[in-house]
TrEMBL record:
Location of the active site: 281 (proton acceptor)
Binding residues annotated for ATP, in chain numbering: 124-132, 146
InterPro entries in alphabetical order: ABC1_dom, Kinase-like_dom_sf, UbiB, UbiB_bact, UbiB_kinase
Topological relation to the membrane, as annotated: Single-pass membrane protein
Record protein name field: Probable protein kinase UbiB
Pathway linked to the protein: Cofactor biosynthesis; ubiquinone biosynthesis [regulation]
Localisation: Cell membrane
Domain ABC1 atypical kinase-like: 87-332
Keyword Nuclease: no
Length: 506
């Protein structure tokens, strides 16, 4: 199965002419003539961007998701590739309507007419893992019905098997393989991808995010209808809005793009630092904008979570970056264990300064977080920085946020927008605010234990109980003394036996 899948990938790469992306590199340019000679029969009648998009669709869900991520990186891709890959966000070829209706009927345990007053057989959106249909309940509420693609699991399993082998090869063949932890990264991706194949889990993610942003003036999360939700079907509140990729339509509707770009940054940092729970698939196909200038989040299959320790060190690093305190960045990396403990802080500080100093005081249009990450990666190799698998989704989400911000407001100052929020968050983690929050969290426990405290003190002062406690303690001490004597006797016998053996064998 694995070899067949690998053969299919290679066949599709050459069939769609994707070899030109590789053979264009100077190190292998000499092979271009040989490939043309072998594939003399090939006729490429479509632009390279269209061929790339079609090849990713043929390769399956994992490759489609890779294309979705690339589509947000307009600073790294030529316009023709970015525009075409953007079609992967919700324009993947849908599966048969009868199959969709069959899946829904089996999941609900009844006919569609019994649940929906209206159900549109043609999907309104079709993505790599599922497609969405418009429907109306009998009480008039409009809903979105998300249906998992039938037979998707075997395809994903074969692709994951290929990724695992590739990760193993990277770890074994490359000098940086073990430090980069490719197998752990693939394992994380495996877990998140399987989570995305369970729509009941996605519904739970949506409910959590909705609670976190209930009554928010920046983000709307649709309500889940749990009575009609299962592992392969999910019913959500229908959301009306403008896709965030339609800049001209939002401008015509009077949407404040500059305000919207600031909201995106604030929403990201709120999810990460306040909640430790964030939407990790924020490509343009998953985000709409409401008429009141609020974001609308969709597709909750991939979410990320961070521990308190991760959030603390991330906040320290971000704030230190904003303040150009590169020494604190270096020491935070050492304290968190992201670099070896014997790393010299001043050397790491100098390397980080070299990477980051040129980017400050510039608008977002002149800053590429992607390029910064690449340069930091080069620096990390020198200092044996270990890749943190739990932060991979966070890095991906940050890059998506940058891509969105660049489209909405190229002059957005990412640092100035994020710094006040992070400063407030850090202030809440120390000082009297943190003390009040800790008291609030511990109050239920205190309410339970404080009334019983006088009785516990009285019991300790009771002479009878004190006598009993002394007796129990003396009994335990006597038992321990007897065990010690027994162990000493055994040790003496063993020593004598060893002496006798030594004399006999002499």
């Amino acid at each position: 199965m694995f070899l067949l899948r690998l053969f299919k990938i290679i066949r599709i790469v050459f069939a769609y002419g994707l070899d030109e992306f590789i053979l264009g590199h100077e190190r292998v340019r000499g092979l271009e003539a040989l490939v043309r000679l072998v594939l003399f029969w090939r006729r490429l009648d479509a632009p390279r961007a269209v061929r790339l998009r079609r090849a990713l669709e043929r390769l399956g869900p994992i490759f489609v998701k890779f294309g979705q991520v690339l589509s947000t990186r307009r600073d790294l891709l030529p316009p023709d590739l970015a525009d075409e890959l953007a079609r992967l966000q919700d324009k993947v070829k849908p599966f048969d309507n009868r199959l969709a209706e069959q899946v829904i009927t089996e999941a609900l345990g009844c006919q569609l007419e019994q649940v929906f007053r209206r159900f549109d057989a043609s999907p309104v959106a079709s993505a790599s893992v599922a497609q969405v249909h418009y429907a109306e309940l009998h009480d008039g509420r409009r809903v979105a019905v998300k249906v998992l693609r039938p037979g998707i699991l075997p395809v994903i399993e074969s692709d994951l098997a290929l990724l695992k082998v590739m990760a193993w090869l990277v770890e074994k063949l490359f000098a940086d393989g073990k430090r980069l932890k490719p197998r752990q990264v693939v394992a994380e991706f495996d877990r998140y991808l399987h989570d995305e194949l369970d729509l009941q889990r996605e519904a739970a993610n949506a409910s959590q995010l909705r609670r976190n942003f209930l009554n928010s003036d920046k983000l709307i999360v649709p309500e889940v209808f749990w009575d009609y939700t299962s592992r392969n079907v999910m019913v959500l509140e229908w959301m009306d809005g403008t896709p965030i990729s339609q800049i001209e339509a939002m401008q015509a509707a009077g949407i404040d793009l500059k305000k919207l770009s600031r909201f995106g940054v604030e929403i990201f940092f709120t999810q990460v630092f306040r909640d430790g729970f964030f939407h990790a698939d924020m490509h343009p196909g998953n985000i709409f904008v409401a008429p009141d200038n609020r974001y609308i989040a969709l597709d909750f299959g991939i979410v990320g979570s961070l521990s308190d320790n991760d959030r603390r060190y991330l906040a320290i690093n971000f704030l230190a970056f904003f303040q150009r305190d590169y020494k604190r960045v270096a020491t935070a990396h050492i304290e968190s264990g992201w670099v070896p403990k014997d790393t010299r802080a001043e050397e790491l500080e100098a390397a980080i300064r070299t990477v980051c100093e040129p980017i400050f005081d510039k608008p977002l249009a002149e800053i590429s977080l992607g390029q910064i990450l690449l340069r930091l990666f080069e620096t990390s190799r020198r200092f044996n920085v270990e890749i943190q698998p739990q932060l991979v989704l966070l890095q991906k989400t940050l890059l998506n946020i940058e891509g969105l911000g660049r489209q909405l407001d190229p002059q957005l100052d990412l640092w100035a927008t994020a710094q006040p929020f992070l400063q407030r968050w850090m202030n809440e983690q120390v000082g009297w605010r943190a003390l009040l929050r800790q008291i609030k969290n511990e109050a239920p426990y205190w309410a339970e234990t404080l009334p019983a405290l006088p009785r516990a003190i009285a019991n300790l002062a009771d002479p009878a109980r004190q006598t009993k406690l002394i007796e129990v303690t003396e009994h335990l001490l006597e038992s321990q003394r007897q065990r010690n004597e027994w162990l000493a006797t055994i040790a003496g016998l063993l020593a004598a036996l060893l002496v006798i053996l030594a004399l006999v064998l002499r």
